[in-house]
Write a structure and sequence with these properties.
CATH superfamily of the largest domain: D-Amino Acid Oxidase, subunit A, domain 2
Number of domains: 2
Shape: elongated
Structural class: alpha+beta
Number of helices: 10
Strand content: 25-35%
CATH architecture of the largest domain: 2-Layer Sandwich
Order of helices and strands: EHEEHEEHHEHEEHEEEEEHEEEEHEEHEH
Strand order of the largest sheet: 6-7-5-15-16-17-14-18
Largest sheet: 8 strands, mixed
Distance between the termini: 25 Å
Length: 389
Amino acid sequence: MNSNYHVVIIGGGSTGAAIVHDLVLRGLKVTLVERGELTSGTAGRHHGLLHSGGRYAVKDQESAKECIEENLILRKIAPGSFEENDGLFVAITDEDVAYKDTFLQGCAECGIPTRELTAKEALLLEPNLNPKTKLAIQVPDATMDCWRLPMRFFATAKQNGADIRPYTEVIGLLKQNSTVTGVHVRSHVTGKEYDIKADLVVNATGAWAEKLSEMADARVPVRPTPGVLVAVYGRWNNMVLNRLNRPSDGDIIVPQRELSVIGTSSWFAPDPDRLGLPMEHVERMYERGSQLVPGVKYARMRAAWSAARPLLGEASPTVGGRDLPRTFKCFDHKERDGIEGLVTITGGKGTTMRAMAETTSDVVCDKLGVDAVCRTREVVLLPYWAYYQ
């Protein structure tokens, strides 16, 4: 055990959940703080797609390879968490058909299994598909619960000794000269403020990563990039449906229990706490979603919301959210800003939460001089409800 070292993780989303699990398995003493309820940020607001990587296989192959690798690992360590329903990339127009060979080549290069279906075969699998469907490509997408999967990581970490504190907001970083030595927090339960000392602090706040790093006079090139999602009543498809084209607005429909989630749009927001919900984006989800499944155009809305992706990239009015990569990066602020004791992990996707944690935990252990290997590829997670026992 290496419990002489204490690490504080800021952020109770999917990445923070996976990091606290990883570091506790490596024998470290770990405290995680989250200003709200666990998974109350971006982690609890995505559409619940376990990516095969197909969406990124053409233009963002690094992300695609990360997704397919983690897709397989998560199925193994979190059995029962996924509806293993596969996905279809559907061609509706001749332009979609022309994209097929490029898509198949990209998937092959990234190691993503594919199976080409005729229009008849696709419509037999998904009768509500647009009758103008010309062909489809089957990939190993799946559906997950965006709350319960991270809670399995939290449950396992808690049983192994992690100190997890929701409703605990970091309002300042403790510093000695150019070294971060802990966090100053406020409990939203008691209203009290107090310090938590640490040998190293991990910033796992996602779209809030730059705001947090600024407390230490450090900087992270993260761009909060919101998107709108719309959940409608009715299970209009049983497989995950994607449009066979370059990623665009409203080109995914994810079945979630008795609902269907249409997503998503993309724009930049300077403040992840003030995203808004543009009604024209909601309307666009209906319009674009109905191109895949005509019936959703008339489906009754259950909910509409926005969530901010923590995309890596420098601020530039000429670069759109669709053009930024979905990969992740871990920043050691000693190397980047001359600030010791602070590490930031950001970017990535819900699907790559475990990989993001492994990368971050490797950096943490290297900085602390801890010789401990990652075990999260094999350790089977406890059920989500074990967190509350």
